[in-house]
Design a protein that fits this description.
Layout (H helix, E strand, L loop, with lengths): L4 E6 L2 H9 L8 E4 L6 E4 L1 H6 L11 H7 L2 E4 L2 H16 L5 E5 L2 E5 L5 H19 L3 E6 L2 H11 L6 E3 L3 H9 L11 H8 L6 H6 L2 H7 L2 H10 L17 E11 L2 H21 L2 E11 L11 E12 L2 H15 L6 E13 L11 H21 L38
Parallel strand pairs: 2-4, 7-8
Antiparallel strand pairs: 1-6, 1-7, 2-3, 5-6, 9-12, 10-11, 10-12
Helix pairs in contact: 4-5, 10-11, 12-13
This protein binds a DNA duplex (18 and 18 nucleotides) through helix 8 and strand 9.
Length: 421
Amino acid sequence: MNKIFAIVDANNFYASCERVFNPALENKPIIILSSNDGCVIARSNEAKAIGIKMGEPYFKLQSLIKYHNLKVISSNFALYGDISRRMMTIVEDFSPTCEIYSIDECFLDFSNLTDEQIQSQCQCIRDRVKKWLGLPVSIGIGATKTLAKLAVNIAKKRSEGYYHIATELQRLEALKSTNIEDIWGIGASYSNKLKAISVISALDLANCPDDHIKKQTNILAVKTAHELRGISCIDLVEVAEPKQSITVSRSFGNEIRDYQILNQSLSFFTSTAAEKLRKSGQMAKSISVFIRTNPFSKKPNQYGNSANITLNYPTDSTPILLSAVNTALQHIYKPDFSYKKAGILLNDFCLKTTKAFDLFDKPQLREEGSKLMTVIDKINHTYGRQTVFYASSGTAQQWLPKSSMKSASYTSNWDELILAR
DNA sequence: TCTGGGGTCCTAGGACCC
DNA sequence: TCTGGGGTCCTAGGACCC
């Protein structure tokens, strides 16, 4: 039996999440801004039609916003994450295997279904997600993941909301109508390099000899070409591999010169990262800290630096990581600059169950520390994030990113439940 | 004035060893 | 005058995704 992949993809996901709780936004052009209200990360169809590009800086859009009466919203990731989990729970019921690929996309295995069954599954998924969650989704189906991704782009332009590349003719039509830069896995750089050797469409890429593709790009683009030909190279990943790194970083609302405030922001990032690390059941042996001034500033003398600390033994303990971060910051901080962004990166992971400690390890202390972390995580999980926090994170949070147009935490905070009058 | 955050993978080149 | 070659490992940088 040949494989059949489906991808379920929410339409304009963040914009649609906002509309679920604010129906007045239906049919209106809306854009969602990144952290710090920096640039556009999601657009409704109406905003796309106006010509607003993905990643466009917000400050450059002021006149367009006024002219078209665009609704601007700061991103609310707690809300989107929650809606995402609900969407995946619904979709998972429709396939024995399911790979959550991103916040708004999920691959399913449709391998043993007939055409009729595929059609009815697609209608059912779309209806149920719309009815239970208020979210519009599109579905693409094909013999490979890459073809399914091509199909979902076609689906979004059709009223049925799904499309199956089922026949050879449909495959060739889909490839012909897809530009090289719109293929999953081919970004701006590779598409430019491929255009230079007259590979313009997905069909051109599928017809291009592997060694030509490899010469312009790398082995991954060769795999993509195989997938376009209908040869499946990328399998469903049912169980996600454990993470290899965890980053927490932010651009600050205002530039920061003060060491204490910078350190407070980094303490906050470290606590957040450590919590994620414990949740994944892993420990880190290495932590990096980076700080930098505003890279867009015209002023001379910009500065950015990072420092990496290798710990004596792997840990998931917040205080141990905080102490390393403090040391690292002292190495790279220079008082003559104002900093725009900072972050930390945990690396070099091993599973918590692995016992590889050094000679000077004190298992009893480690055990007590671990209990403390468990209690803190439990309190924060039950009573809300930051109910208990480290003093080094401070209370003023003068570094917080801008987020002036954020919607409420409709699904995760009792005080912000939506009111029905 | 104002430009995101969080991941993964591949590759070239340097360090090191024999 | 004239100074090897090949393997492995690591890392930084670049590419991709959403």
